[in-house]
Structure formats: C-alpha cells, structure tokens
Amino acid sequence: MSSTPVYAAGAGAAADNPAGSPPETKSNKRWTRFILPTYTTVFILYLIVPIAVMIVFAFNTPVGRYNIKWEHASLDAWRDLFSFPDLSSSLKLTLEVAFLATIFSTILGTFVGLALGRYRFRGAGAMNFVIFLAIASPEIVLGSSMLTMFVNARIPQGFITILLAHTMFCVSFVAITVRARVSGMDKALEEAAGDLGADPRTTFFKVTLPVIMPGVIAGALLAFALSIDDYVITNFVAGSKTTFPLWVYGATRQGIPVQVNVMGTLLFSFGILIVLAQLMASRMRARGDQKRLAQDKARLAAAATS
Amino acid sequence: MLAPGALYLAIFFLIPIGYMFYTSLQSGFIGDFHFNWHFVNYPNAVKQYGYIYVRSLVYAGIVTVLALVLAYPVAYWIAFFGGRRKSVFLFLLLLPFFVSFIIRTVQWQFLLKDDGLILGPLKRIGLLPDNYHVLGTSIAVIAGITYNFLPFTALPLYVALERIDKGLVEAGKDLYAGRFTTFRKVVWPLALPGVFAAFLLTFVPAVGDYVNASILGGPGNTMIGNVIQTTFLTNFDYPIAAAMSFILMAALLVGATIYARVLGTEDVTAGAASG
Questions:
Q1: d(CA A190, nearest CA chain B) in Å
Q2: Going by C-beta distance under 8 Å and a sequence separation of 6 or more, which residues neighbour residue A4?
Q3: Residue B163: what pLDDT?
Q4: What is the ipTM metric for this complex?
C-alpha cells in the first residue's frame, strides 16, 4: 500500500537491507541504535510468555485433577485428551459453529465488500458507517442487545442463536477484508474480460473472484479465528449450551485441567500451520510467475536473435 | 448484491439495539416485564453503578495510554527498520491471537499467583514481602487488559507508520533536522490518524471488557461489563441491565460517531482488517 516510488531511492535501499539498519549517519553508530530492536524483542517475548506457559504446562502431570504446580513431564493429558466429556463436546460445538459461521459470513461479507469496494451507490456511506459501528461496538453491547431481542421475540437460545450471532460479528470483518482487496484491484481486468466477449457471470467467476480470492480467504480465516475465540457474545446468547471458551471460563473457578492446555496448544499449532501453508502457497505462486516470466523473456530473446 | 449482507447486519445489529432500548423502558417482576416507558431505569442505573462506569473509563484510559506508549516504538521500528523481515515481526505480534482470549488470561492468572512463577522467586530472594499479591488488585486487571489488547493497538499504528513516504523522512534529514525533530515534525503528524485508530480500537473494547476483571481482579475491581453480565445472566433483571448496556453503548458510540465524522472510518477498518 505504500506509495514511495517517486523519490524513495534511499528508503528503498533501507527497506531492502536485510539487517534492517538505517542509512549510515553519524548518530547511528552510537549504542542508542540497539535500543529499539532490543525493546521490540522484549516486547515480542512478553507477548509470547503466556503462550509458552500454556504449551509447557500441556506436558505437565499434575498430582490432582488441576494444572497448578509443575510435577514432571509426560504425555498423559495428550493420551487422555477426551477424558472430560463436556470439554470435548464443547470443543466440538465450537468447531461446528465456527465452520458454519465462517461459510455464512464469508458469503454475505464478500458481497458487501465487493459492493463497497467497487461501486459508488446511495447508501454506501451508511453501510460503511454501520460496519464501522459493528466493529467499534464493545462485544458486551452486541451480545446483550441480541439477548434482549431473543428474549422479547421469545426465540429460545441455543445452537441457532449462537450461529446467528457469530455470523453477525464475522460479516463486518469479512466485508472490510474483501473491500480492501477489491479497492486495490485493477478495474481494467474486468473491462478487458468484457471486451473479449465474456458475459458478467463469466467475468465474475473467471476474473473477479480469482483476483479477490486472497482477500476472501483472509476474511474467512479471520472469521474462523474470531468465532472459535469468542466468549462474551456467546455467553449472552448460548442459553444452556457450552462452547470451548465458555467451558474454560467456567473451569477457572476450580482450576484448569491439563487437557485445556493441550487443546489450546493444538488449536495454536493448527492456526500457525494454516498461516504458514498460505504463505508457502503465495511464495510458490510468485516463484511460478517469475519462472514463467523468465521463460517468456528467454523465448522472446531467442525469437529476436534468430 | 449488497442486500443479503446489509439485511443481515440490520436484523442482528441494528434491530437488537432497538430491542435493547425497548427492554430498558420496561418494568415489572422477573419473568413478567412489560413495556411502560419506565425511564426511571436510567437514573436508577446511574445512581447505583455510576462509580463503576467511572472506574471502567479510568481503567480503560490507563490501559489505552499504556498500550500506546508500549506499542508505538515497536510499530515504529518494524515499519521503518523491519526490512525484509517486516512480515515476520508482524506475524510475531499477532501470535497471541492464535491462543484463545480466555486461555491467555487464565495463563496470566497462573503466572501472577501469590506463589506463582513470577512472584514466588521474587519473594524467596526477598525482593518482595511475603504477603505481597497482584491478583485481585487493579494492577492485575489493568495489566491483563493491556496485554490482551496490545495487538489491537500495535496494528493500526503499524499500518499508519508503514504508509509514510520514507522519502519525507530522508528529506527531513537532508534539511538538517535531527532524528528527534524529523520524528516530531514529519513522522508523528503523518502517523497521527493511526494513533487515533489505535486509541479507538483499544479504548472501546477495554471499557466493555469484563473477562480480565473477573479472572484477574477481585471484588474491588468490578467493571461495568461484570455488572451488566451479572444483571442479565444471573439476576435476570433485564430492564435495568438493558439500561446499563444502553448507557455504555450510547456513551461509546457518541464518541465513536464524533470520531468517524471528524477522522473518517478508513483508518479503523484498515487497522482492524490487517488483524
């Protein structure tokens, strides 16, 4: 998104410098240049501390039922991962809700994002503002207001209300993610497809959708992550159902069994793997593009010399 | 094309707020509330819980300032000196999001226990008195909220700082401005929208948060979220709870609306989208 091509030769060099050192000036040779990188490292370590504790204590073998003191390392909890039936069923419910909410919110949100990123229409400003409000509202307000609606409309709370609520807060995040991708898209691509005789439907599926796909996938991943993690809104609309975050919260009163650490570690690893896979895929695509470009160039050069 | 999504947001975001207002004007007994323009719920809520609103605003204010001060240098360094590893650093900043919010908070409860991994050793070597505790104090609550919302602060700051034309910084140096002057006259004003976006994205959820207060805090650290949650879900006193929630929403949304009118919504949604 940066717009630096005009006179950014110096900055470009700095950005390309893998060591990340600023352009050489006198002041940079002082010890002060270590302050910011060191601070950033400490800051990131601080962010990681609770994650590390969670992972380490997933291998603990507590004497009692709860994970309070380090005893010795073992894989016991990993073997008995499903020894708390209500914990397992809460995780299952969470994944079911997250899966469905991701599908619904991705479909709804993608079209909103497309419309907002592409067209100027009456009500676009209002729509942007509603999305902004939905994102800027505290979760407790979203959750409690939906509860009052369900209570007044006499809708029983349970799976359906959780799903409806999760889809609601995910739609706005998908919409802004897709909107960002759409507004960065080159309009000429679709015009070219039209010029080549593609009807709007073909243009959408063959040109528009592939181009905005990274935005759609990012939005879907964000929706999934938001859904499995949600506590506050779910707590208001869940009725007697218990999702994974609700179960963990309820367990804080007595103490958390090791299995929670194990499941947290599994979800964490799963999330990291997905992000890494996505990164690799985009790297490979970029490399493939470069290869093809090089081949084309070579072919052109060969044609020119012959 | 837009209609299904817009309709969905209307039904599950705007209409519930109407219902909440409707509920806040009801009165009666639990299980049998009826609508009768019972405006007195509002003054009652303020009279009874006004000090908790104030406490929530104060906590959230401290959290936001702390988070901005802590996150700004990091966002600055990554944006200007992250080099090719920018995305790696950004990924590391986002790592907490891969662990459930509740689990992260529970880990802090575990870490900050009186004889836990942090306080235990400090007490044994005599740096802290034996009866010193952090859990159940406002320090624990503020620290917990700050930790949990730091990525929300760092991201919009990073987005704004990254967008700055690095050539302008070079120009500042060419004109013999020192590092500090360049920062003050060039970088700071250009990244100011990011600071406002970070403020909004940290302050608003922090005011409404009650998870940290209930896991890390004690009876003296109750925040307005705790009261709203208990009144709704434990006491089932819907009208007064709806009034409290409505007051919270009105206060924050009036602020957010003024914000949107003055500064626009782009920076906030861009910051949120990059998360």
A1: 17
A2: A11, A12, B165, B166, B167
A3: 86
A4: 0.88
